[in-house]
Design goal:
heterodimer; A: mainly alpha; 2 strands; B: Hemopexin; five-stranded antiparallel β-sheet; four-stranded antiparallel β-sheet; 17 strands; about 20% strand
Chain lengths: ~270, ~350
């Protein structure tokens, strides 16, 4: 009984400490909201952003006070974020307006009430961070759907990462696969983001909340370690050191011919 | 390609990039905006972060969303100051401090020429000694430059169980702060493709296209390659183990980093195995007729797992396995996916 009283006391503190009462949530409704979040997301209550969660759910219910607070806190931030994402002012504003409509809820549910996107916010990260991610998802999905209508050849060009999947030397491929298997998820993520997606060091830094110099150092380390591992596997497979190093260096797809430079040199040679 | 930072980068050889690109197979389930936002804000537990990172390492779409969402944030992260680089500055500062503590002005005598009587220097007015200012070191402690302070430890709190308050099934709300979990590196299975020269014999029938696509899950049909189907050879490595596992119909093990391989008979040895995945010390291998084997000790011992639910038993060939941790495993077959979230005790058809 004493334990139950303590549990209830903690719950009361959570309820009183949040804006739940201000936005019209009863204790039962507050409890139901927390239980729903707990079912969907295995996080400790202490790790939840309760204020943001209550605000989002209050807006989803159509509470006007909550909407006024939401607009005052996030309206300008969302427009700036949308313009930053779209990089064109008009497209950014259009993206933000469509996003706002989604948040407000233009669709009616089975019981006739508006279905707001804010109902899916679970309080794991900040509401601002969640809004940015949903905005990013909308933008990426919209851009991807527009790209689908491009012709096949153009689509292939857009999708191409510049990486040729023609099979490599079998031993080299196997050695590379073994070496890649030993990398951690973060290391493979860094390599994929930088070398496949073409993300800059600063962009990757923002994704991982690290400075670009840290990303640079890590990528250098990973590339060096990968090279060492591949060499070791090749040597273990009976390939001599020199041959193994030549295999690593001799991929003709790595040769980049600077056409302009060569043409300039040729013209200079002709004029002399 | 987007514009690059001014920092120079080691170039990654093309063959490494091509092998990395082959691994880009996005699982069907993607982290939602809640998880991505919490990931970007470093608000996930170590285990969740590892799981999201593993997904991001394979899913270009989610990486794009994370990049676009993070780019719209206001403040870029601050640089980490590597305190060990300041060791020379610290040493120089310490030397200056010691010198300053022991040095006094006017402590040198005038030089005396040979044969000459020392010149008596006139008594000088006593100088007012200046107080020695200690030189404050540039770095007092590496800790002060950490970007993020360590979160204060809180006393564990009991879980709150709600039963009678509302008419809901009992749900335990965990108020206790979770123990910081060690990040166990997820070693996912690696699937590579070997080109099959005679494609006509192995072309997938139209009705089995779903199975063929599952089998070629990571394969991108680009005009350059023009391959219709490939045969899988897979690698996996269990956490903490040096042994490598590979699968090409039969399960093989290497204890010398892939130099030599030996066949590991699993079960009766009759069924061909096509899918392999490792998560922590758990390894799963599956293949013909719904055959599925599981090892919890990095491959030392194996047991057969029957995949079934109330609707029936899995008899299709398992063409892919995704193991996220010891409990969450998804099997891919021609007729659909099977999922377990409790380590194989119960299976749901998807």
């Amino acid at each position: 009984m004493a334990r139950r009283v303590d549990d209830v006391a903690q719950f009361e503190r959570l309820y009183d400490g949040s804006d739940a009462q201000r936005f019209g949530f009863t204790r039962e409704e507050f409890c139901e909201m927390l239980a729903e979040v707990a079912r969907q997301s295995p996080a400790s209550l202490h790790d939840l952003k309760l204020d943001d969660l209550v605000l989002a759910r209050a807006c989803a219910r159509g509470n006007e006070d909550a909407w006024r607070q939401f607009v005052s806190l996030y309206r300008e931030k969302l427009y700036r974020a949308a313009v930053a994402i779209a990089r064109v002012d008009s497209i950014g504003r259009e993206l933000a307006d469509a996003f706002y409509a989604n948040l407000f809820g233009t669709r009616l549910g089975k019981d006739g009430h508006r279905v707001s996107k804010l109902e899916s916010y679970l309080g794991r990260g900040s509401l601002e961070g969640w809004l940015r991610m949903v905005l990013a998802q909308d933008y990426v999905n919209r851009f991807r759907s527009e790209r689908r209508f491009v012709g096949f050849v153009e689509t292939a060009d857009i999708r191409s990462t510049g990486v040729d999947v023609v099979p490599d030397n079998a031993k080299l491929a196997e050695a590379t696969d073994i070496a890649l298997t030993t990398l951690s998820s973060e290391e493979r993520f860094l390599l994929s983001a930088h070398y496949l997606d073409g993300r800059t060091l600063a962009e990757i830094g923002r994704m991982l909340s690290l400075h670009e110099s840290t990303i640079s150092r890590r990528l250098e380390k990973i590339a060096a370690a990968l090279r060492k591992k591949i060499l070791r596997v090749l040597r273990d497979a009976g390939i001599g050191r020199r041959e193994a190093e030549e295999m690593l260096e001799a991929d003709v797809r790595d040769l980049t011919l600077n056409i302009r430079e060569r043409l300039t040199q040729e013209r200079q040679g002709e004029s002399i | 390609m987007k514009g690059r930072s001014a920092l120079r980068m080691t170039k990654l050889p093309q063959f490494v990039r091509s092998r990395l690109a082959i691994r880009q197979t996005a699982p069907a389930e993607h982290p939602d905006a809640n998880l991505l936002a919490a990931f970007a804000e470093q608000a996930l537990s170590a285990r969740e972060r590892a799981s999201v990172l593993e997904h991001l390492a394979r899913c270009p779409e989610c990486r794009e969303i994370l990049a676009v969402g993070s780019a719209s944030a206001a403040d870029p992260p601050k640089p980490e100051i590597e305190w060990w680089k300041w060791r020379w500055v610290a040493a120089a500062a310490a030397a200056c401090l010691i010198a300053a503590l022991f040095w006094r002005p006017g402590s040198f005598q005038h030089g005396v020429e040979e044969g000459m009587a020392p010149v008596a220097s006139p008594p000088s007015a006593p100088e007012k000694e200046k107080p020695v200012q200690p030189i404050s070191p540039v770095v007092t402690s590496p800790r002060q430059f950490r970007a993020k302070p360590n979160p204060p430890a809180a006393a564990p709190q009991p879980a709150l169980t709600l039963r009678q308050t509302v008419n809901l099934p009992p749900v335990t709300l965990n108020l206790a702060r979770p123990e910081p979990a060690r990040v166990t590196p997820q070693t996912a299975s690696l699937e590579i493709h070997e080109a099959v020269t005679d494609l006509s014999k192995e072309a997938a029938p139209a009705q089995n296209r779903a199975g063929a696509m599952a089998l070629d899950g990571m394969f991108q049909q680009t005009p350059q390659t023009n391959l219709a189907k490939t045969r899988l050879r897979q690698f996996a490595q269990a956490e903490g183990e040096k042994s490598l596992w590979s699968l090409d119909g039969v399960l093989r093990k290497s204890d010398d980093r892939g130099k030599t391989w030996r066949v590991v008979p699993v079960g009766s040895g009759n069924a061909r195995l096509y899918a392999l995945s490792a998560a922590g010390a758990d390894i799963w291998a599956g293949g013909e007729g719904g055959t599925l084997f599981h090892s919890t000790d990095g491959g030392l011992a194996w047991k057969r797992v029957i995949v079934a639910n109330a609707d029936g038993r899995l008899t299709d060939t398992i063409t892919g396995i995704e193991a996220r941790d010891a409990d969450w495993i998804k099997l891919k077959t021609a007729s659909g996916d099977w999922l377990t979230t409790n380590g194989g005790r119960h299976w749901q058809r998807q």
